[in-house]
Amino acid sequence: MSYTLPENIVDPVKLDRLAEVAVKVGLRLQEGQDLVITAPVCALPLVRLIAKHAYQAGAGLVTPFFSDDQIALARYQHANDASFDQAADWLYEGMAKAYSKNAARLAIAADNPLLLSSQDAGKVSRANRANSKAYQPALEKIANFDINWNIISYPNAEWAALMFPDASPEDATRQLADAIFAASRVDVEDPVAAWEAHNAALKERTTYLNAKNYHSLHFKGPGTDLTVGLADGHEWMGGASVAKNGIICNPNIPTEEVFTTPHALRVNGHVSSTKPLSHQGTLIDNISVRFENGRIVEAKASRGEEVLNKVLDTDEGARHLGEVALVPHSSPISKSGLLFYNTLFDENAASHIALGQCYSKCFVDGANLTPEQVKAKGGNSSLIHIDWMIGSDQIDVDGVNADGSHEPLMRKGEWAY
Amino acid sequence: MSYTLPENIVDPVKLDRLAEVAVKVGLRLQEGQDLVITAPVCALPLVRLIAKHAYQAGAGLVTPFFSDDQIALARYQHANDASFDQAADWLYEGMAKAYSKNAARLAIAADNPLLLSSQDAGKVSRANRANSKAYQPALEKIANFDINWNIISYPNAEWAALMFPDASPEDATRQLADAIFAASRVDVEDPVAAWEAHNAALKERTTYLNAKNYHSLHFKGPGTDLTVGLADGHEWMGGASVAKNGIICNPNIPTEEVFTTPHALRVNGHVSSTKPLSHQGTLIDNISVRFENGRIVEAKASRGEEVLNKVLDTDEGARHLGEVALVPHSSPISKSGLLFYNTLFDENAASHIALGQCYSKCFVDGANLTPEQVKAKGGNSSLIHIDWMIGSDQIDVDGVNADGSHEPLMRKGEWAY
């Protein structure tokens, strides 16, 4: 039992910039706004800096909630069976109340990807289900984008050891910190300006794609020949976007993707994954699936095939797509060559598709659509939303118009229009 | 900015015993009971051990809330003026809900007594007032003893430096840890048995005092000539007591006091403090106040007088007493000769009185009294409850009967009946 002590390892200037970017770009925190932070206790040095920047920006009250891996494990090691159906519903209801009073929300992702991998899978799944159910009132307000929110990341020694198994714990943590800083664009003198430029570049892409209003996308490359129909009235999003409280924020840091909603019934052909997928402590590699009319009718993987098939059996929506995203092969995260075992990073290294639930915000006037209207336009629904990478420097992507004509979008993984 | 690292300094066997005593004696946590913990982040090693013992005792879910001195200071250093009227009402309402569902509550006290001493007194007072008001729904359930609860302590480097200014930070922390372990009676082989014996000794005192049913107490010594009327139907308590949920627990560890409810309108005379009071980051020393018909009409202090007067202005109840407690001068904490700058310890080194809210449990059949009935019997109500020490080896205490006759209770600070 020990603290991780990254404050002695992590570059303090870049860490302060990350905190500044979280407050000024990620949240665009407004004067008088309260802030709720969830973070692992190892991220304390970053939370302290975020509190400083938040109060400097005029925050009302900053309320941090710290979790701890050892306390989480103590439950699996010592608790009675009945414990695994419990969740802190009173806490999540409280958070939901804070969000309805316009508190902003910042999450720091620094999970050990393998924390629960050797625990009883049934208990893990019951605890997750109980927690998801209790969390629903708060999650709804985040998922519906009622308020400005942001996720950023912080190095954790166990996570670093997984990514850099040959390095010493200190070196591994330092390398992970540097990778997070680079991906989060805080390794430059003026990170806020860098984010403005990046948001503008992503905005150009979404403006172009929305004007084109393609009927579908066509992905072609080794092991892949896939047509992804786009939902009726789909809207491309990327980078900064407007929350319902009127604040323009960057929910994910890093972010490199532009993304929209596919049509759940108009996906055909076959596709191969280009990076391993880390799902609940298991690696799934060399995925290869075949779609017929939007449904996955055949699925293989060289590793983790059983877990993949369990995922696909979650519900009917798990066999259909809920998101398609384009990311150039030259994105900084892709160029790092690192596998982060964390979707916040890995989904920004390559074009990808997601099984499961779609985002209603990825429709024109999405904020005002009912679930029935979303479905009628081709939006998929499911309990899951799992991204996996299908882009590489060997993949071409075309935009396909309603009349069947093709226009080049990406060639060898790079933008080509 | 650094972590305190007491887990490398503090005796791990005694620390584990402290966690065990908190769960088995302090809370007497029941199978299936949830547990809410509030703790400074420096107490993480103790919180981890408490989580282990709680789950071993059959806890449902353990939910810790960590506070951090640096984040608290960031607010005073950087926040807008309006921030100091904010509080996390949604969080305290959530805690109140957890307690109404029978969650137990453990607080770890490890505050730096001087944390806020150089901050603006007006802002400190406004922030405390906003927080007390927001905390009220949760505090009520603790103060009314609806559930089993416990406070224990943990060393903090800044606190230790204040107590042992000539020692190195490591030595000071080790000495504070040893003082906490001794006061908490975990420096013996079987601390659970030691607590059973101690609870029995306190029970003898309360049984005697309850049989006497005095009309008032009279304190006399240097700077003190004070008559404290006791509330109608008051009941003396001390050591273990029964919460309304039926669980026999030890709310305070350590505890050496026997205590009851004074009559809010029948306190007369003057009294001087015998130890400095550390109140939310400020030291208040050499307090001297005069009561007329229960109300403080004059208050002085050689240090912190401004803060004292702000406290008294919180509400009308802040000028009246809510508790009177007797502690022999030979108590182990008193004999240690240490000033802890922490009420949990210092109130167990000397007889004391408390400004503000009374404990409804300190009435015969208190669990069934309405707030109106408590008030009619002389019970005080306020947003605050602040203990300060008036006992020493120079103070005599008499029990005064309704007919005006006096009986000796303490002489030169020791039990004398």
UniProtKB/TrEMBL annotation, chains A, B:
User: Which cofactor(s) does the record list?
Assistant: Zn(2+); Co(2+); Mg(2+)
InterPro entries xref list: M29_Exopeptidase, M29_N-terminal, Peptidase_M29
A Gene Ontology molecular function term for this protein is: aminopeptidase activity
Q: Does the keyword Zinc apply?
A: no
Entry-linked Gene3D superfamilies: Thermophilic metalloprotease (M29)
- Print the keywords alphabetically: Aminopeptidase, Hydrolase, Metal-binding, Metalloprotease, Protease
Q: Cytoplasm: is it a keyword of this entry? A: no
Domain of life assignment: Bacteria
Read off the SUPFAM superfamilies from this record. Thermophilic metalloprotease-like
Tell me which family the UniProt entry assigns to this protein: Belongs to the peptidase M29 family.
What PANTHER family does UniProt report for this protein, alphabetically?
A: AMINOPEPTIDASE, AMINOPEPTIDASE AMPS
This one is known as: Aminopeptidase
